[in-house]
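Good morning,

Attaching, inline, the backbone tokens for the sequence recovery test we're adding to the shared suite. The designed sequence is right after.
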């Protein structure tokens, strides 16, 4: 047990006591001051995130946009009707005081390092994209896993209960870090207190026994590679599920180059996981952002329920990183969860309410789970809920 008066609890309470709102207002004031008038607003990154932000902004602001990008073949072109310039061209055209909004949200990216690098180039007003989303909430929120901050504040009782539910200090630190990021864009607290490469010790202990690894959202085999090169025991079998055609081909290529003994124990399934067997519309991006779609005209992919695929007599370590479809996937393996035959790793960063809703959903199926929280990257990416049966 952890003393309720420990510093983590104090930090948690402080976030909901007005400090985060004050910091948020300060950041918005700085952005509004930089964007005052009719000068250019520069979106740094003319990729998928930047294009999505530009398309959703009000027309009055969209007409002021420039893209800044360091990719040579994009420079001097127009993307979605917006001019793309190199950093030195932006400095020459709009000057060092123009607001630069960093529109990069991907594994390994650190806003603080990007801001420092741009400052060294001469830019004086560099802001994260989430801050722009706070300025235009009706157009841009939710932004990836970032909800409207006031919704988090309204849910203080539930977040407090989640804090108490975690009986490990590292999990509590991770939660505080995620809330500091979502409430006041405190990148430093999120990175220092939340990031970790390790698995919770109870997960490692549970995996010291024979288990089957089930990789839902297997992408190109990156999670399988991390597992096989870790110090954890090799699973007796691997079941991998990946619906995106291009990703699946990369997954096959990765597995093909493994030693025969490992390769023969891996079953590859070009399918998504969900509540029931069937088909579903799917946005094929050919990268880690591919996801089930609400667009009825999108191509269909096969969907399977894990309860119909896995033997509950075996111990399973199931990873769900399925781009926002985690709740449906959990419903599809409720029998395994109720029988405490699954150790779980669940992404809780794709949808704004996943951090609250997915732990509640899991415990409603089986309250006899220990829960842990880890963030294996920064800026909210790869934040995982780990669940271990108490009797494991």
């Amino acid at each position: 047990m952890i003393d309720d008066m420990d510093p983590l609890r104090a930090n948690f309470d402080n976030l909901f006591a007005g400090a985060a709102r004050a910091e948020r207002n300060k950041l918005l004031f700085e952005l509004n001051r930089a964007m005052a008038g009719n000068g250019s607003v520069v979106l740094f990154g003319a990729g998928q995130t930047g294009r999505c932000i530009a398309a959703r902004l009000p027309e009055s602001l969209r007409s002021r946009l420039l893209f800044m990008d360091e990719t040579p073949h994009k420079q001097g072109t127009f993307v979605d009707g917006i001019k793309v310039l190199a950093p030195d061209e932006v400095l020459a055209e709009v000057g060092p005081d123009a607001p630069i909004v960093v529109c990069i949200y991907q594994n390994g990216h650190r806003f603080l390092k990007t801001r420092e690098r741009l400052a060294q180039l001469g830019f004086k007003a560099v802001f994260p994209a989430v801050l722009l989303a706070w300025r235009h909430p009706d157009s841009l929120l939710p932004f990836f896993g970032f909800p409207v901050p006031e919704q988090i504040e309204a849910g203080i009782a539930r977040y407090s209960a989640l804090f108490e539910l975690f009986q490990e200090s590292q999990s509590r630190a991770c939660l505080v870090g995620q809330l500091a990021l979502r409430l006041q864009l405190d990148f430093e607290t999120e990175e220092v207190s939340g990031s970790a490469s390790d698995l919770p010790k109870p997960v490692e202990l549970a995996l010291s026994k024979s288990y089957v690894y089930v990789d839902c959202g297997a992408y190109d085999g990156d999670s399988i590679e991390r597992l096989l090169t870790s110090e954890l025991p090799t699973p007796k079998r691997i079941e991998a599920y990946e619906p995106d055609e291009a990703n699946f081909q990369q997954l096959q290529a990765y597995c093909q180059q493994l030693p025969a003994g490992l390769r023969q124990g891996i079953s590859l399934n070009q399918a998504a996981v969900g509540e029931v067997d069937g088909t579903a519309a799917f946005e094929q991006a050919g990268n880690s952002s591919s996801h089930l779609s609400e667009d009825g005209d999108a191509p269909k992919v096969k969907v399977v329920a894990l309860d119909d695929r896995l033997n509950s007599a075996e111990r399973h370590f199931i990873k769900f990183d399925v781009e926002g479809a985690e709740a449906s996937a959990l419903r599809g393996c409720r029998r395994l969860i109720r029988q405490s035959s699954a150790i779980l790793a669940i992404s809780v960063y794709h949808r704004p309410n996943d951090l609250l809703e997915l732990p509640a959903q899991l415990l409603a199926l089986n309250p006899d789970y220990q829960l842990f929280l880890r963030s294996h990257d920064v800026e909210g990416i790869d934040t995982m809920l780990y669940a271990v049966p108490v009797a494991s």
